[in-house]
Write a structure and sequence with these properties.
A hairpin with a 5-residue loop joins strand 2 and strand 3 (79-84). Helix 11 (256-268) packs antiparallel against helix 14, helix 14 packs across helix 19 (384-395) and helix 19 (384-395) packs across helix 20. The chain is an alpha/beta fold and 427 residues long. Mean pLDDT is 81; it is low at 3-52. The chain is globular. It has 21 helices and 6 strands. Strands 1-6-5-4-3-2 form a 6-stranded mixed beta sheet.
Length: 427
């Protein structure tokens, strides 16, 4: 994995130089469409029963291609946004201005938190690649708020074309942003960043990766993704709540990781601005996980790192073999928007009371704590809406381990309602 410079979507003196480039813009090519607020509102309800947006949604024609996806958190606790070049249709079949607005709408939900962008380059051809004018427009659209919290951009399977493009834009690139750009030659290299199982990697990209690996000489073969191994005797991460309860000497329904992190955060994290929005040192994250998995005691009061504890809590939830809200409730939750608003609290209470005992106890313990966090939102800036965006994807995902963009909206909405009505649900 190597790092190179890329276009810095921000404000710098070079913007004027970019604007002077004699490029054919989107407006020149196809006529600029003026979209109303409702037409650019990506937060409108998703079609819960479909893998895509409903046909009458203003972004249906973009979302149906699944070019942009959200894939939970990476190994550092940062949200992951995926862009699939191979899913872009031919230029004449895609409104590139709408694609840009859709990408902005997606990022708008996460730019206040640390996030990672993964770009799968394979499949970009002369037929579907956007014009340089579109890149110029994108440069202007993505201001500082989008680049501030992006911690890494990974370009997977880069070609000479994209490397040449980066060289072309090199005079316009800030050094700081350029350090965030990484070339990834093989999918196995991504395992250091994010678990590939949770990414919706297109079959074409996987096949291309296999072809690249097969073309190498045996001595230069990159390591394959590590196989899943059976849990260690004292393993905590990646182990079911039922097994953790069984191992507990006191038949504790709430796992020790949740008790440790939430206890510490309740004492020292409630007034920290942006709690749960920041990432943590990856070395420390791995060290803490190793200590838990080896049966050692972890005292966050000795470490004194609020963001580390927050990341460990999110990581524990995300690495459960089955989500806290369980696969069984997935369809009910994704379709929850159809429940009348005056009946939603009762409906949620019925759903969560159907959970296994250890899941219900852990969920109640977590939500009670999040209510404390939200009560201090004037200081920490974490309202129920913000907490739902952070925790929704860590409480529920599909059986394929991936999170489609069409499902994340309903899941976050359900999570927000559960937080809003927690005093009625967990009585």
């Amino acid at each position: 994995m190597s790092s190179d410079l890329l276009v810095d979507f921000g404000d710098d003196p070079a913007t004027a130089q970019l604007g002077q480039l004699k490029l054919a813009t989107i407006e020149d090519q196809q006529g600029q469409s003026t979209l109303s607020k409702s037409e650019t509102d990506i937060s409108q309800p998703f079609g819960a029963g479909s893998p895509h947006l409903p046909w009458d949604h203003p972004f249906y024609d973009i979302a149906r291609h699944q070019i942009i996806e959200v894939a939970g958190d990476d190994n550092f606790g940062r949200k992951v946004i995926v862009f699939n070049a191979c899913r872009m249709p031919p230029q004449h079949q895609l409104d590139h201005h709408k694609l840009l607005m859709y990408l902005k709408g997606t990022l708008d939900q996460y730019v206040e938190s640390d996030y990672t962008l993964i770009y799968f380059h394979h499949g970009l051809t002369s037929e579907n690649k956007p014009s340089l004018g579109w890149l110029r427009d994108a440069y202007r659209e993505f201001d500082r708020k989008y680049k501030k919290n992006i911690k890494a951009l990974y370009i997977v399977h880069p070609t000479m074309f994209i490397k040449t493009l980066l060289i072309l834009f090199k005079p316009l690139i800030s050094f700081k942003f350029g350090r965030k750009i990484n070339y990834v030659s093989y999918l196995s290299e991504l395992e250091d960043v994010v678990k590939c199982d949770q990414l919706l990697i297109p079959a074409r990209v996987k096949q291309y990766d296999d072809k690249l690996r097969a073309s190498l000489k045996p001595v230069t073969q990159p390591p394959a993704s590590p196989p899943h191994s059976p849990p260690l005797p004292d393993q905590v991460f990646g182990v079911s709540l039922a097994l953790l309860r069984e191992r507990s000497s006191e038949d504790d329904l709430v796992p020790v990781v949740m008790r440790d992190t939430i206890s510490f955060l309740s004492e020292q994290g409630l007034e920290i601005e942006g709690i749960f929005r920041r990432s943590a040192n990856v070395t420390l994250v791995k060290e803490v996980q190793l200590r838990y998995n080896s049966g050692a005691t972890v005292d966050f009061r000795e470490i004194e790192d609020v963001h580390l504890a927050a990341v460990i809590l999110k990581t524990f939830l995300r690495e459960l073999p089955e989500p806290l809200l369980t696969f069984q409730l997935y369809n009910d939750i994704v379709n929850f928007a159809s429940v009348p608003s005056d009946s939603q609290a009762t409906a949620i209470r019925t759903l969560v009371e159907s959970l296994p005992e250890e899941n219900y106890a852990s969920l109640r313990y977590l939500v009670t704590f999040l209510a404390q966090v939200s009560a201090n939102s004037e200081v920490n800036k974490m309202t129920n809406s913000n907490l739902a965006v952070v925790f929704g994807p860590n409480l529920l995902w599909g059986r394929d381990n991936a999170m489609s963009l069409s499902a994340i909206g309903p899941i976050n909405s359900f999570t927000k309602t559960m937080l809003d009505e927690q005093h009625l649900i967990f009585t």
